[in-house]
Structure formats: structure tokens, C-alpha cells
Amino acid sequence: MLTTTEALEAVLAEAKAFATETVAADDATGRVLQQIVRAERSQPPFDRVMMDGIALSWVDYDGGQRTFPIQAMQAAGDKVLSLQTGHCIEIMTGASLPDNADCIAPVERISVADGTAEIEDNYELKKNRFIHPHGSDFAEGAHLMTPGKRISPLDIAIIASCGETEVIVAKDPVIRVISTGNELVAAGDAIEAHQIRMSNGPAIMSLLGSHHYKRISHDHIVDNVSELRHRLAIHLDEANVVILSGGVSMGKADYVPQVLADLGVEVVFHKVSQRPGRPLWFGKGPNGQVVFALPGNPVSALVCCRQYVIAALASASGASESPPEFAAVASNISFKPALTCFLPVKLISNAGGQTLAMPVKTNTSGDFASLSATDGYIELTKDQTDFPAGTAVFLHRWIAQ
Ligand code: AMP
Ligand code: MG
Q1: Is the Cβ atom of 290 under 6 angstroms away from ligand 1?
Q2: Residue identifier of the C-alpha nearest atom 15 of ligand 1
Q3: Are residues 342 and 377 in the same domain?
Q4: 181 alpha carbon, closest ligand
Q5: Residue 87 shares a structural domain with residue 165
Q6: Which of 134, 138, 320, 367 could form a disulfide linkage to 148, CB 3.0–4.6 angstroms apart?
Q7: Which pLDDT score, from 0 to 100, does residue 367 have?
């Protein structure tokens, strides 16, 4: 049986890069950039005035002049004026510095009467103060963003500032989420005592959506070999990524691995030395599709989806790897089985600035209600059984920060 590290490596090795596409910048948030975004102009593109006030010449001020006839007013967006010797120009934040001016007196430090501005006694001006120099943030042509960046709202500012209306990003893969099981009934449909509400499909779709994958649809297939074969063949034809839940354990109705094999999906691994999620099955389809068959138990399904599916999607989207995240366990934990334990936790921070992980007990791997209180799960390595309070462990958040 593969270790969790081996399983993740195997998944990433099969997750081949998605194609690229051009999208409107307005729709690019959350997508993975596949181009360089270059600065259209130097920033700031001119000597930018940072205060409302008056612009004057340092030479005049240094020579002792404190009252200045107001030559004109120049606001942000106005054409650049040329300052005359001995005068000042009323200036607004964001304006381009007038020619011949190199000194700003803020509006709070002047008084204006009869077309003349007077600088407050004892207020000392400094040459070039309150002037944000041309090109001091970055130069024209600078590489402001590079491929692999997951586009955040902050990056949207950069893209817009570069004058780009479109960007090249990794294609959003077509994903099929398939719930298997005779017992499952969707919300909205009548349910009988012996049946179970289908919760994995909606939760997996939501988790993928929160990681910015949007081309997802869902199907429910009963535990019937010919039905599974027929419907899975269609999904394999149409999707880049197929995610099943249920039907991969050792029960008599667990037909998924066999049917996938019949459809030409080659098994890469079945079972990982972990809890929850030991029965995880992973394979590659004839056209390079990646196929995950997650155990049906809701906690297992969500942990496996977060741990392996999201990692595969990020890698195939060309996302730059994020550094690992750690948390300190909040209390002594012991886990005896020779398996990696993915333990759902709530995060708190202490006064020392540490992130502490508080285990949230799930009754069984079917107890999805307890997960609502959790932020993610910690990884307790296989070769250790006792984790004293304060031990640093890997943390995986459900939703990336
Ligand atoms: P299986 O892996 O098919 O043996 O399912 C394991 C357990 O998870 C069973 O109790 C199923 O009823 C439950 N289960 C499977 N799929 C889902 C689902 N989509 N939503 C909620 N529970 C499920
Ligand atoms: Mg089942």
C-alpha cells in the first residue's frame, strides 16, 4: 500500500498540464496566470503630488520667500502647468508636479487670502517631500506578474493598471462529480427511512468551486454494473477530471474499480496508508483524463478531495507551489495505527503568534456534521504515535488562504 507521500507524487505525475485560454480580466480572479504581465508604463508615470496644497520652487523658499501669489490651480488629471518664478500653483493629490516646481506645502500649513498663499510660521518645507517620483515603484516593461500566479483581487489591480483587458490563463478543466450508491437521495426528493441524503456530491462541487474550478457537473449513478459502465463512458468522454464518491471499498456492490478498468482506465493505485480515506482509488483514462474514486464516507471523501484532487488540479493548472503550512497541536494527541492520520482541526492563534490546531472529534468517518467547525486538517505522520502539545505538524486548510 502506498504512503500518502507516494500517493500524492503519483497523482501529480499523472496530472498533465491543462491547455491555456484567454479570458476577460473581469473574469480572471482565481485563475492561474500563464503569461508575463508587463508594466505598460513606469509607476508613477509622472512625478505624482501626494498632498493637496501648493507647489512652489525650492529656490524661492530657500531664499526666504513665505508668501506666494497663486498663479493657477492644477488638479489630478489636469495638463501639466509651468510654474513661474516667485509664484505657486494650487495643487491636488494625484496631480502631475508642475514644471519648475520641486516643493509642496500641504493645504493644512498655508493660509490663502487675496490670491496669495502664505506658509505657516515655523513650518519647514523640504525639497521633493510629498512628491512620489516618476518610476520609483517600477519601470516600464517590468515583469509585474509571472506564469503560475493564482490571480487575486490585488492582481486584478495590476492587470488593469497595465491596460490589459484580457489575460492568458490555464483552461478551467471540465470536471464530473459522480455520486454512486443505491441508498442516495438528492435534497428535494422524497426520502424513505432506509435511505441516505446525498451530501458528498454537493460538498465536493462546492469545495472545488471554492478553489475556483467552475466547469463542474454532477451525476448520481446507482450500484449497477451496466448503468455505471454506460454513464461513466460518457463522463470519461466529456471530462478532463472525473471524481467518483463511493463504491471503492470491499463491499459486494463496490463495482467502481472493475467498471473503470473495463472502460480502459488504468489503475495507478488503490488504497493509501491513511485514515480516513484508505480505500482511495486513482487512475488515468485512455485520453489522459485523471480519475479519482473517493471513498463514500463523507469525511473520507472530503479529505481525499482536498488532499489529492485539489493538489492535482492546481498542478495541472500550472499554479506555483505554495509553501507548506504548519500548526502546533493544541493538546497531546496519540494515534497508534501505522497509518498517516488526517485529523480535522479548528485553528486558533495564541498570544505568541502561533497557530494552534485543536482536534475536532468526528464520531466516525461518516460524521460530516462535525466538520463544519473545522478550518482544515493536520497531518500526523505514519511513523510517530505520540504528538505532545506544541508539536509542529503540516496543516491543510479546506479553503486555501
Ligand atoms: P461506500 O464507499 O459506497 O461503501 O459508502 C460508504 C458510506 O458513505 C456509506 O454509508 C454510504 O451511504 C455513504 N455515502 C456514500 N456516498 C455518499 C454521498 N454521496 N453522500 C453521503 N453519503 C454517502
Ligand atoms: Mg456505496
Answers
A1: no
A2: 296
A3: yes
A4: 2
A5: no
A6: 320
A7: 82
Greatest extent of the chain over all pairs of C-alpha atoms, in Å = 96
Q: Which of 277, 307, 292 is nearest to 239 (CA)?
A: 292
Grid cell of 114 as nine digits:
487675496
Using a 6 Å cutoff on CB, does residue 257 contact ligand 1?
no
Please give the Cα distance from 231 to 214 (Å, whole number): 21
Pocket of ligand 1 contains residue 277 by CB under 6 Å: no
What domain range is 88 assigned to?
48-132
The Cα angle at residue 115 between residues 109 and 119, in degrees rounded to 5: 20
Say yes or no: 179 and 66 in one domain. Answer: no
CA angle 81-84-89, nearest 5°?
55
pLDDT of residue 328: 98
Examine the domain organization and report whether 251 and 329 are in the same domain.
no
The contacts of residue 78 (CB under 8 Å, 6+ apart) are: 95, 96
Residue 370 is classified by DSSP as G
pLDDT at 114: 97
Please check whether residues 215 and 301 belong to one and the same domain. yes
How is residue 322 annotated by DSSP? P
- Spatial separation of the C-alpha atoms in residues 163 and 40, rounded to whole Å: 7
- Indicate whether 184 and 253 sit together in one domain: yes
User: Would you say the CB of residue 251 lies under 6 angstroms from ligand 1?
Assistant: yes
- 170-199: string of b/e by CB count within 10 Å (b at 16+)? bbbbbbbbbbbbebbbeeeeeeeeeeeebb
**Residue with CA closest to ligand 1 atom 7:** 297
- Mean per-residue pLDDT of the chain: 96
H/E stretch holding 211 reads none
pLDDT the model gives residue 250: 84
Q: Look at residue 265 in the predicted model and tell me its pLDDT.
A: 97
Closest CA to 200 of 247, 257, 269: 247
Regions in the chain scoring below 70 on pLDDT: 365
Residue of the CA atom closest to atom 5 of ligand 1? 296
> What single DSSP character describes residue 309?
I
